[in-house]
Design a protein that fits this description.
The complex is a heterodimer of chains A (112) and B (120).
Chain A (H helix, E strand, L loop, with lengths): L8 E4 L5 E6 L12 E5 L6 E4 L13 E6 L2 E6 L8 E9 L5 E4 L3 E5 L1
Parallel strand pairs in A: 1-9
Antiparallel strand pairs in A: 2-6, 3-4, 3-7, 5-6, 7-8, 7-9
Chain B lengths: L3 E4 L3 E2 L5 E7 L8 E8 L6 E7 L4 E3 L7 E6 L4 E6 L8 E9 L5 E5 L3 E5 L2
Parallel strand pairs in B: 2-11
Antiparallel strand pairs in B: 1-3, 3-8, 4-5, 4-9, 5-6, 7-8, 9-10, 9-11
Classes of the chains: A mainly beta (112), B mainly beta (120).
């Protein structure tokens, strides 16, 4: 059971906007810790998608955006494309676990 | 562009020690980074194992701390993971990654990952 809760799956049609939630608690996201997001395309290594809640590394399209509020964070993808079909993971810290790194359970995005 | 590649046995017997090496294409002793390991058991999410700084300081997931050792060999541009007394629960894809030191550290880039199965 992951400390950060993500929906197991989401889906959307090409061109649509989807969001993936990452729900934590007062000891992690709610404590003010930043959230990062990773994308893992089929058969490839995870790739940093968003860091520091809402910052995109160089090369990541602006169709991807992140936000954080209270004890939750969200990843939004606009203009959904077939190549966005992947697993997405959120990551943060938890103060109840000696500040160690925590991940969400992952969300499988299916582009219909 | 920095690249990382994991290597090591794909099959380990229960109670033995899992040993993996991560080869780094461009090693940097910048104080701004750690080098870390993350694993993903089949059907489960990602789990941080531990990280090491170029000074040798190590940080481990408390749930694995008693069994984990991460070390660095800068002469070979490599860092390594040893996990002792393995059980079937340690079967997972193991990833190495560079860890950016920040308010909340992040992992970038990652290696491709290597599947380690614990079985007799």
């Amino acid at each position: 059971q992951s400390v950060l809760t993500q929906p197991p799956s989401v889906s959307g049609a090409p061109g649509q906007r989807i969001t993936i939630s990452c729900t934590g608690s007062s000891s992690n996201i709610g404590a003010g810790y930043d959230v990062h997001w990773y994308q893992r395309l089929p058969g490839t290594a995870p790739k940093l998608l968003i860091y520091g809640n809402n910052n995109r590394p160089s090369g990541v399209p602006d169709r991807f955006s992140g936000s954080k509020s209270g004890t939750s964070a969200s990843l939004a993808i606009t203009g959904l494309q077939a190549e966005d079909e992947a697993d997405y993971y959120c990551q943060s810290y938890d103060s109840s676990l000696s500040h160690h790194v925590i991940f969400g359970g992952g969300t499988k995005l299916t582009v219909l | 562009q920095l690249q990382l590649q994991e290597s090591g046995p794909g099959l380990v017997k229960p109670s033995e020690t899992l040993s993996l090496t991560c080869s780094v294409s461009e090693y940097s002793n910048s104080s701004g980074y750690y080098w870390g390991w993350v694993r993903q058991p089949p059907g489960e999410g990602l789990a941080w194992i531990g990280s090491i700084h170029h000074t040798g300081s190590t940080y481990y997931n408390p749930s694995l701390k008693s069994r984990v050792t991460i070390s660095l060999d800068t002469s070979k541009n490599q860092f390594s993971l040893r996990l002792s007394s393995v059980t079937a629960a340690d079967t997972a894809v193991y990833y190495c990654a560079r860890v950016r030191i920040a308010f909340v550290n992040w992992f970038d880039p990652w290696g491709q990952g290597t599947l380690v199965t614990v079985s007799s």
